[in-house]
Design brief:
60s Ribosomal Protein L30, Chain: A; 2-methylcitrate dehydratase PrpD; alpha+beta; 17 helices; four-stranded mixed β-sheet; 2 domains
């Protein structure tokens, strides 16, 4: 019998070194760190971020524990991980993969807390994050729509698995202990779609990523002494992870982004260590589902290229992947995709066309100053009357096609390939300038963060991270 997915990943991760990583992978991990830590700095100013700091210091203070962002206070390993994940997540500046996973607020806090307590270096953090992101992306890749159709929110489900690998590597686990950490994580993960949209949610989703980070670290801790062996086939076994969270233990899919009905488990580890899927991570800049980002940016580009104003537009026609129009789950969409509504693609497209942009996380604003943008009548009228969203089976993810027909009868259009959002460190740094109005300390403080993260492979401790966020 071939080695399990967990065994193959653990074998690779246990021997992975900084020198094994291609320069593009190191650059991308640094970009992911920069994006996540920018979000952390912004998140420290939010009510949610401040609340979780007080909660952890009331419940889990530990003078020799791990550091909580900005406060300088210390809590238990799990407590600090949870608090830092909530701070990062509260900013809404999230990375994204396959629409429904946001690894940064899960993997980065798990990495930093464990690196601090285990005396690890910046290079160790880069290696652990490279492995954790890669593992997460590979195990979720073809399976996200089927997981979502089961009512489970993929981000915490798959994020817990990635966090366990990250934490286990920084704890110095060997191959067997990493297998155990992965198996234990499969028993610890959860997260339901009942927390929003049409189904009367009460905000439960806000704890999903923080709890995934915490549970992943817990799984790695439980595996540390070797007393729990864990199951090699916890993922693809008959009653394992995939059976529970996709409804099938043999790779059969109920939904997929490209229409396929079956995934090959062998493909999960194919070219592991040679081909890095983490290079395709995208960085969300707007406080809305990530598939709206290319829609917004393409509309702005087309209007600028063709000198169009909103009043010139007769119809704005958007074609996008069918599964994206059923966000967050094809079985449990939180809106009717054919009815324009505030907070959906129709709205963000209209907002971009009417106001010349959409507010950026922590930064630039567009639209009437001081107004509730959700009640901007010009946007609402444009949304209802002139925006059309067309679901297309098999259209590439996050790659919308847009056609604009003007009142004068002219037609212009274009497509936004997903690859345009696979930014490297330099591209991300440029885009993050839009967040600076909301960044504590403004551009000088942000520039110091950029410098610190660019030199992450020279960190001898995690003090550099916490000092620059605390400024």
């Amino acid at each position: 019998m071939a080695d399990s997915i967990s065994r193959q990943v653990a074998h690779w991760a246990a021997s992975l070194t900084y020198d094994d990583l291609p320069p593009a992978v190191v650059d991308k991990v640094k970009a992911l760190l920069l994006h996540g830590l920018t979000g952390a700095a912004i998140g420290t100013q939010t009510a949610k971020g401040q609340h979780v700091v007080h909660l952890m210091l009331d419940e889990e203070p530990k003078t020799d524990g791990a550091t909580i962002f900005a406060s300088g206070a210390k809590a238990t390993r799990n407590g600090a991980t949870f608090a830092n994940a909530e701070i990062m997540h509260a900013s809404d500046l999230l990375d994204s993969y396959r629409m429904l996973t946001h690894p940064g607020p899960i993997l980065i806090p798990a990495a930093l807390s464990n690196a601090e307590l285990e005396g690890r270096s910046g290079r160790d953090v880069i290696v652990a994050l490279a492995a954790g992101y890669e593992f997460l992306f590979r195990i979720c890749d073809d399976f996200i729509p089927s997981t979502a159709a089961r009512g489970f929110r993929p981000s915490p489900i798959y994020g817990t698995m990635g966090a366990a690998l990250v934490a286990g590597m920084l704890m110095g686990h060997d191959e067997d202990r990493l297998v155990a950490a992965i198996s234990l994580a499969a028993h610890c993960t959860s997260g339901l779609f009942s927390g929003g949209g049409l189904y009367g949610g009460g905000g439960e989703r806000s704890i999903h990523e923080p709890n995934a980070a915490r549970q992943g670290v817990f799984a790695a801790l439980m595996a540390r002494d070797g007393s729990i062996r864990g199951s090699d086939f916890a993922l693809e076994g008959p009653s394992g992870f995939y059976n529970a969270f996709t409804g099938d233990g043999e790779g059969n899919l109920t939904y997929s982004f490209d229409g396929r009905k079956r995934a090959d488990f062998a493909a999960v580890t194919e070219d592991l260590g040679t081909t890095y899927r983490l290079l395709t991570a995208m960085f969300r800049m707007y406080p809305c589902p990530g598939y709206n980002q290319p829609v917004i940016d393409l509309i702005l580009e087309l209007m600028e290229q063709h000198s169009l104003q909103s009043d010139d537009i007769e119809v704005l026609d958007i074609s996008m992947n069918y599964i994206e129009t059923l966000y967050p789950s094809p079985a449990f969409p939180d809106h009717n995709p054919y009815v324009p509504a505030v907070g959906q693609t129709h709205y963000f497209a209209a907002h971009a066309a009417v106001n010349g942009g959409v507010p950026v996380v922590g930064g630039r604003t567009f639209g009437p100053t001081g107004a509730d943008l959700r009640s901007d009548e010009r946007v609402l009228a444009f949304m209802r009357e002139r925006v059309k969203v067309v679901p297309v089976w098999g259209q590439a993810m996050f790659s919308p096609s847009i056609v604009i027909r003007s009142r004068a009868g002219a037609t212009v259009g274009g497509t936004y390939p997903y690859a345009r959002m696979e930014w490297d460190f330099a591209q991300l740094e440029e885009r993050l300038q839009d967040c600076l109005p909301g960044y504590p300390g403004g551009k000088p403080a942000f520039d110091r963060l950029v410098q610190a993260v660019r030199g992450a492979d020279t960190w001898t401790s995690m003090a550099s991270v916490h000092e620059v966020i605390a400024e």
